[in-house]
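Progress note, sequence design subtask.
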C-alpha cells in the first residue's frame, strides 16, 4: 500500500512539473517538490516497515530493491531541484521513477534472497544502490548536457533551453554525481566483501552479482582516473558517463548470460 501511494505521489509531482513547464509559476515547482519529498518519505516508511516486519534488512523481493532505488532517485531529484531551481529536472527524473515503480508492481512476487540479519548487508545494499543511482543520474545529465549544447549551437533559446539548467550546471551535476557515486559504490563493494566473508565462512564466492559489481567499479574507476590524471572537457565527461552506463548494462547482460551458460 505504501509503495503504491508513493508512486501516486510521483505521478502528481510529474503533473505539477508539467504545469510549471507549460504554464509557468513558481508555485507549481513548490508543489512538485512537496509531492516528491512526501513520496520519498513514504518510500522510507515502506523500507522501515518491511524491516520491522521481517526483523532483518528488507531484501525479500525485487519490489524491495526498486523501492530503495526510487527512494534515492527521489532524494537526488529534490536536491538537484534545490540547487538549480528548475522544475524541468523532475520532468526527466520522475519518468524513470514511474517506470521503476511499474516494474516493482510487475515483479513484486519474484523472490531474490532469503532474509539476512548481517549488519554489513544493511551497509552494502544502500551504498551500492545509491552509488548506482548516481551513475544513472550522471549519465542522464550527460544526455541533457548534449541537448543543451545543441540548443546553444543553434542559438535556439526557446522552450527547451529555458526548461533545462545552464550548461555549466549540467556539467557540474554530471561530474559530481559520477564522483560521489563512485565513492558510495566503493563503500558498498567493500562492505559487500566483508558481508560475503561472514556469509560464506571466510571464502569469497564469485557470484554474478559480485562479478558485475567489480566490473562496474572498474569501468567508472578508469573514467575517474583518466579525468583526474589527463583531464576531460565537460563534453568528454558527459560522454564518458553515458558510455560508462552503456558499458555497465552490456556487461550485466554478458555476465548474466555467462553465468547462466
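Output:
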Amino acid at each position: 500500500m505504501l509503495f503504491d501511494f508513493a508512486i501516486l505521489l510521483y505521478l502528481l509531482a510529474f503533473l505539477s512539473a508539467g504545469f510549471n513547464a507549460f504554464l509557468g509559476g513558481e508555485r507549481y515547482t513548490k508543489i512538485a517538490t512537496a509531492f516528491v519529498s512526501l513520496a520519498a518519505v513514504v518510500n522510507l516508511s515502506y523500507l522501515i516497515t518491511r524491516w520491522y516486519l521481517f526483523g532483518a534488512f528488507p531484501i525479500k523481493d525485487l519490489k524491495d530493491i526498486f523501492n530503495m532505488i526510487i527512494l534515492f532517485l527521489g532524494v537526488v531529484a529534490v536536491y538537484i531541484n534545490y540547487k538549480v531551481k528548475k522544475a524541468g529536472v523532475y520532468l526527466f527524473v520522475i519518468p524513470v521513477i514511474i517506470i521503476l515503480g511499474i516494474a516493482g508492481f510487475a515483479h513484486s512476487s519474484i523472490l531474490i534472497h532469503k532474509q539476512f540479519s548481517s549488519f554489513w548487508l544493511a551497509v552494502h545494499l544502500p551504498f551500492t544502490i545509491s552509488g548506482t543511482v548516481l551513475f544513472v543520474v550522471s549519465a542522464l545529465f550527460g544526455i541533457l548536457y548534449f541537448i543543451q549544447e545543441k540548443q546553444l549551437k543553434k542559438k535556439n533559446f526557446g522552450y527547451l533551453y529555458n526548461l533545462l539548467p545552464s550548461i555549466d550546471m549540467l556539467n557540474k551535476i554530471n561530474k559530481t554525481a559520477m564522483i560521489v557515486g563512485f565513492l558510495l559504490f566503493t563503500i558498498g563493494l567493500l562492505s559487500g566483501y566483508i558481508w560475503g566473508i561472514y556469509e560464506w565462512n571466510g571464502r569469497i564466492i564469485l557470484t554474478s552479482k559480485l562479478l558485475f559489481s567489480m566490473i562496474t567499479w572498474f569501468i567508472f574507476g578508469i573514467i575517474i582516473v583518466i579525468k583526474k590524471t589527463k583531464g576531460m572537457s565537460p563534453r568528454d565527461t558527459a560522454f564518458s558517463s553515458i558510455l560508462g552506463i552503456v558499458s555497465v548494462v552490456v556487461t550485466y547482460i554478458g555476465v548474466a548470460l555467462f553465468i547462466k551458460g
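The mean pLDDT is 83. Work on this subtask will continue into the next period as scheduled.
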